[in-house]
Design brief:
The chain is α/β, with parallel strands linked by helices and 318 residues long. Helices cover 35% and strands 18% of the residues. The strands form three sheets. The chain has a five-stranded mixed β-sheet. The two termini are 19 Å apart.
Length: 318
């Protein structure tokens, strides 16, 4: 199916392991409405699809032309399915994402991996560099996602798996179980749950979420400071090594974890800089150009660049 009229608003949905963010995005990229709701991650794919539909209805207007979904997991935009996924979303692998959401909403749906969508939005920004740019994009949140662009084009790679930075080996995560089923991957020590779990291992005191660890670090709890800086240094080292391998013009680090404050950001940047070869010594990670709207803007942009999957004629709920 062809893309909707470029002047019509579209809905962008960012599906993460913790929350779903929705936005109605005008043809010129302006965000007209926003809504968030929790992701029912443990309740299975049907519940997640229902929640996506609910989020889209919260921002939808009569002239909305399509929905773009930026989703966790390995996504095949041609078939509109989830090829592979970790256990962050229970039973997510194999989900007919585009068809399931189109049926629930009555709108055509385009979908891709969430971080690839955000990276595409970064490239498309007026100052993004676009054609010719080599970009590494990391999103550190409930998991650690990533995307890589070469010559201004986001790479999908074999089986659509390109950019899964959270599943690179990390010495700091040695022996720790990862959500993908392996051990010793970056995500196990650098993602929000990984930092929180590391704090509990160090202190013997449970923490319910990353923000609690950050609050304790602000009060100079040494175990909280160590858990945050260890996760940040692990991410910085992996990104610095990737920079040496790929020679990017820009390295972007987004997601919820960097927003906990300077303690995390400074440790990541210092570890990143320490890994760089001399020709890259001036390179530093930067936040996404789209700010907090980067993911939903990237999701909305999918409707203009990827195949749209139309709703089935029966059972659609506008």
């Amino acid at each position: 199916m062809t893309a909707p009229h470029h002047d019509a608003p579209v809905i962008g949905l960012d599906l993460g392991g913790t929350k779903i963010a929705a936005a109605l995005v005008a043809g010129d990229g302006a965000v007209l409405a926003r809504h968030t709701l929790p992701t029912p991650a443990a309740r299975g794919p049907e519940a997640v699809l229902d929640a996506l539909a609910e989020a889209s209805r919260a921002v939808r207007t009569q002239d909305a032309a399509a929905i773009g979904v930026a989703a966790a997991g390995v996504i095949d935009p041609v078939s509109g399915t989830v090829v592979s996924a970790t256990d962050t979303l229970r039973g997510w692998a194999g989900t007919a994402l585009a068809d399931g959401l189109a049926t629930r909403t009555g709108l055509p749906v385009a979908c891709d991996n969430d971080v690839r969508a955000a990276a595409a939005a970064e490239l498309a920004a007026p100052d993004g560099g676009g054609e010719g740019l080599t970009l590494v994009y990391a999103a550190v949140g409930t998991g650690v996602g990533g995307a890589v662009a070469a010559s201004g084009r986001v790479l999908h790679g074999a089986a659509g798996i390109a950019g899964h930075l959270g599943h690179l080996p990390s010495p700091e995560a040695d022996g720790l179980p990862c959500t993908c089923g392996a051990t010793g991957h970056l995500e196990a020590i650098a993602a929000g749950p990984g930092i929180t779990a590391h704090y509990t291992r160090l202190s013997g005191s449970p923490a319910d979420r990353l923000e609690t660890v950050a609050e304790r670090a602000a009060r100079q709890d040494p175990h909280a400071v160590s858990a945050i800086t260890t996760g940040a240094r692990a991410a910085g080292r992996v990104l610095g090594g990737l920079a040496n391998a790929l020679g990017p013009h820009r390295v972007v680090v987004g997601g919820g974890v960097p927003r906990i404050g300077a303690l995390y950001r400074d440790a990541l940047c210092a570890a990143f800089a320490a890994e760089l070869m001399p020709p890259l010594r001036t390179l530093r990670p930067v936040p996404p150009g789209g700010g907090d709207d980067a993911a939903v803007l990237g999701a909305a942009a999918l409707t203009r660049t990827l195949p749209l999957h139309p709703p089935r004629t029966s059972g659609a709920m506008p």
